[in-house]
Amino acid sequence: MQVHYGLKGLKLNNSVATIGSFDGVHAGHVVIIKRIKELAKKYNGETVIITFDPHPRKVLYPHTTGKDLKMIYTIEEKIDRLSSLGVDHLVIIPFTIEFSQISSTSFIVDILLKQLSLLCMVVGFNHYFGHNKSGDFSLLYYLSKRYKFYVEEIPEKDIHHESMSSTLVREALSHGWIKKVNSYLQSKYFFFGNIQQVKTESVIDNGQLVITGLKDRNKLLPPEGTYSVTVFVNNKQYNALLWSFYNDPEICIQINTTDKLEEGSKMRIEFSELLSDFTTMESSDEMNASIKSDFYNIC
């Protein structure tokens, strides 16, 4: 997948495109991506996803709905997820107040048609775009007839009644309902981190304790607790126990391995399920006991 940062100098050919924030890349998004892949094959085009960074709400409503908005995936994680779905191009538009003032028609004509050579456009059933969200499917359909491109709206029933919304994923994640989150995403929830420290002693006597740091404080994380996870580091895969304290945020991962893990290494952590919820516990002794028990159960 080719990643394009910004629109300056961008020129693509025969684009079969869709547009959105794609926070979480949930099941509803996957339906749309599968459709643009089908159309690209049919019309000999290339799949293009247009997204934004930062999230529009962070820019447009910084003191209200955007103030405390956390992202299911960071931009790096979003790139990784979309790449795994076989998309040809990802266009990341820096979202600013100035960009938000571009009219819906100008966005279609001056950007999608002129710069991306738009061949087909696919949107979800409730998609709005352009200044003040003035663009909708009716406008897209009108412009498609005038400028000779194909446009398609995915019906609500084909996106699982839009129950797979980013809001619903966030709610499930905030409660630690990992199996439900993974079902919504049609993939395991994950994040990237960098190993800050490796210890051989911990609450548990064997294995290695890895403390990893998160670079993006806008990342949405599940509640403090213990989780069954799979860790990928240095091209190797490990079953592991993760427990979390988010003041730093500090993430502790216990890996039962004789492999030497290096500080500074990049980690991918995929979540399978919540084992113990620390928010319901009253003492550190209770938390330590649950860590030991959960570790020996999964490792």
Features:
299 residues; alpha/beta; Rossmann fold; Elongation Factor Tu (Ef-tu), domain 3; 2 domains; 6-stranded parallel beta sheet; 6-stranded antiparallel β-barrel; 9 helices; elongated
What coarse outline follows from CA principal-axis ratios? Answer: elongated
Helix-strand makeup class: alpha/beta
Instruction: Going across the biggest sheet, name each strand in turn.
Output: 1-4-3-2-5-6
Number of helices: 9
Count of separate structural domains: 2
Rounded Rg = 22 Å
Distance between the termini: 36 Å
Task: Find the CATH topology of the largest domain.
Answer: Rossmann fold
Strand content: 25-35%
N-to-C SSE series?
A: EEHEHHEHHEHEHHEEEEEEH
* Top CATH class of the largest domain: Alpha Beta
Low-pLDDT windows of residues: none
CATH superfamily of the largest domain: HUPs
Query: Main sheet?
Result: 6 strands, parallel
Oligomer: single chain
Helix content: 25-40%
Number of strands: 12
Strand-helix topology:
Blueprint: E1 2-5, E2 15-19, H1 27-43, E3 46-53, H2 56-60, H3 75-84, E4 89-94, H4 97-100, H5 104-113, E5 118-124, H6 137-147, E6 150-154, H7 166-174, H8 178-185, E7 190-199, E8 208-213, E9 225-233, E10 236-245, E11 250-255, E12 266-277, H9 284-298
Parallel strand pairs: 1-4, 2-3, 2-5, 3-4, 5-6
Antiparallel strand pairs: 7-8, 7-12, 8-11, 9-10, 9-12, 10-11
What can you see in these coordinates?
- By secondary structure, this protein is of the alpha/beta class.
- The protein folds into 2 domains: 2-170, Rossmann fold, CATH 3.40.50; 188-298, Elongation Factor Tu (Ef-tu), domain 3, CATH 2.40.30.30.
- The protein contains 9 helices and 12 strands.
- The chain has helices spanning 27-43, 56-60, 75-84, 97-100, 104-113, 137-147, 166-174, 178-185, 284-298, and strands at 2-5, 15-19, 46-53, 89-94, 118-124, 150-154, 190-199, 208-213, 225-233, 236-245, 250-255, 266-277.
- The strands form 2 sheets. It has a 6-stranded parallel beta sheet, sandwiched between helices.
- β5 (118-124), α6 and β6 form a beta-alpha-beta unit.
- α5 packs across α6 (137-147) and α7 packs antiparallel against α8.
- The radius of gyration is 22 Å and the shape is elongated.
- The two termini are 36 Å apart.
